[in-house]
Amino acid sequence: MFSSLRVPLALAFFCTILLTLALAETVLLGGVRQTYLDNAQASLERDCGFVANLMRRHMDQTLLSVTARKMITDEMAQLSVNMSGRMCIVNYRGNILEDSARRKGQNVKQNPEVDAALHGSVGIRLGDLESDPTMYVAVPMLAQKKIVGAIYGSRSLWDLQLTLVQLRTRFYEVALAVLLGGMAFSLLLARWLTLPLRRLTQVVKRFGEGHLDERLHSRGRDETALLTRSFNSMADNLEAQQQTLMRFVSDASHELKTPLASLRSLIEALEAGAPREQFLGMIHRDLDRMERLVANLLDLHRLEQSALRFQLESLEMEPFLRELAEEHAAELVLSQPVTMQLDPDRLHQVLTNLLVNARRAAGQGRVQLGADGESLWVEDDGVGIAAEHLPRLFDRFYRVDGGRSRQQGGTGLGLAISKGLVEGMGGRLEVTSEGPGRGARFTVTFKTRSEPRPAKTREP
After folding, report:
1. How confident is the model at residue 137 (pLDDT cuts 50, 70, 90)?
2. pLDDT for the residue 140
3. Strand order across the beta sheet in which 313-316 lies
4. Class of domain 223-304
């Protein structure tokens, strides 16, 4: 319905201001009205009570004299003028005996407030503020501790009506100014609040168009800042993944290009009449290399897609490692029997790759395969690894000595696959080297369960 979030957001702010003003009108005008009525009622009760006390003091001593009666009626008239109302003396039958408005003889007993006063309680009645804006109060009049009548008073509430009209008019004038200002403020506030979202939308659009370097500056700790940081983190990951993918494609194409070019040259040499046996062997070598490369690429793909399944089982390491050491002419170092929960085939693949690499690096030198507590390790005293190569050693297609590795048939993927296999079985693979010419040590760490070697018994 709305093309921008700013419009409904601004409407929400505006409606909030409008509802606040409506509530303020109700509370303010209602409070003024109630306060006025409470004060008017208290004043009217006080004046009627004053006249009732005058009547009681005179009638308790003697019959009401003409002088006392005139003094009381004069007092009633003055009070009536002060409160812009009317005051009457009513006998026990409800007949008006004295009236500040000079309307004697009227019977008002049917009025509920008068009837209440003749029965001993203060009676109050509020007329309709539209048709009869008047307040009526009647208080009991006593003589010799008996109810002999009532003092009946009323006052007009037209001044209340006028005050409320004036207040409402003034309030509406102020409310109109507030609404106009609130509308402008709502639009500005909505624009300010949606500004980070608009920026994020623009960046996301450019990011979707291929500008992967687009980022947003994040400030604060609110939801928008959290969304911005989440986007930046996602963008960093996607950019890194794309760079990795591009590097992977480039390296893979380069690795495949070399044996393909070699195969083409060998086939052309065969066509030209070169010795068949020699060149067929070289063709088989290049085909084996390509086959290993494709198999390694598939393994990497399965590892990245978590599609490679591991068959974990309890594995006694001593016979397993002894067989590997004999196969690769390595020295076995085993301090105590170790049992690990591993996939034997995948572990064999990892250790075989490490032992082959160690033998290439050591030549005729020493290669050791060992287990110690929680770790398996392969160590050699060969060419070693410079410190600058260690952080990238497990990257795919990374070679410390590219030409030498290719000549020996390496694909540059073995260590990356080994690291992925070890992590897939819940372990970690690390490498240390003291530098060129000082050998290297690859350590594989798993959660293990060591078991003591059973004691041997002598035969009789």
Report:
1. very high
2. 93
3. 313-316, 338-342, 448-450
4. mainly alpha
Is the pLDDT at 459 greater than 60? The verdict is no
Q: What is the CATH topology of the domain spanning 6-163?
A: Beta-Lactamase (3.30.450)
Sign of the four-CA dihedral 226, 228, 229, 235 = positive
Q: Which amino acid is present at 48?
A: C
pLDDT at 307: 61
* Tokens read off for 379: 């160590």
Structure confidence at residue 406 as a pLDDT band (50, 70, 90): very low
| Average pLDDT rounded to a whole number, residues 35-44 | 88
Q: Please list the residue range(s) of the chain that carry CATH number 3.30.450.20.
A: 6-163
- The answer to whether residues 160 and 34 touch, using CB atoms and an 8 Å cutoff, is no
Cβ atoms of residues 435 and 387 within 8 Å: yes
SS (H, E, C) 332-397: EEECCCEEEEECHHHHHHHHHHHHHHHHHHHCCCCEEEEEECCEEEEEECCCCCCHHHHHHCCCCC
State how far the Cα of 11 lies from the Cα of 295, in Å rounded to an integer: 62
Q: What is the pLDDT of residues 336-375, one digit of tens each?
A: 777 788 888 888 888 988 898 888 888 888 888 988 777 8
Cα three-residue angle 261-265-266, rounded to 5 degrees: 115
Give the residue-averaged pLDDT of 147-156: 88
Q: Provide the phi-psi class of 384: left if phi over 0, else alpha when psi is between -120 and 50, else beta.
A: left
Task: Sheet containing 440-445: give its strands across.
Answer: 331-334, 367-372, 375-380, 440-445, 428-432
* Residue-level length of the chain: 460
CATH number for the segment(s) 313-450: 3.30.565.10
Long-range contacts of 412-416 (CB under 8 A, 24+ apart): 412/251, 412/255, 413/293, 413/296, 413/297, 413/299, 413/300, 414/296, 414/353, 414/356, 414/357, 415/353, 415/357, 416/300
- CATH 3.30.565.10 in the chain, residue ranges: 313-450
Task: Kindly report each contact of residues 386-395 with a partner whose C-beta sits within 8 Å and lies 24 or more positions away, as own/partner.
Answer: 386/433, 386/435, 386/436, 387/433, 387/435, 390/431, 390/432, 390/433, 393/431, 394/418, 394/419, 394/429, 394/431
Rounded to whole angstroms, what are the CA distances from 115 to 76, 125, 142? 21, 11, 15
Q: Tokens representing 323?
A: 């067989």
pLDDT band at 450 (very low <50, low <70, confident <90, very high): very low
Q: Decide if 288 contacts 410 (C-beta within 8 A).
A: no
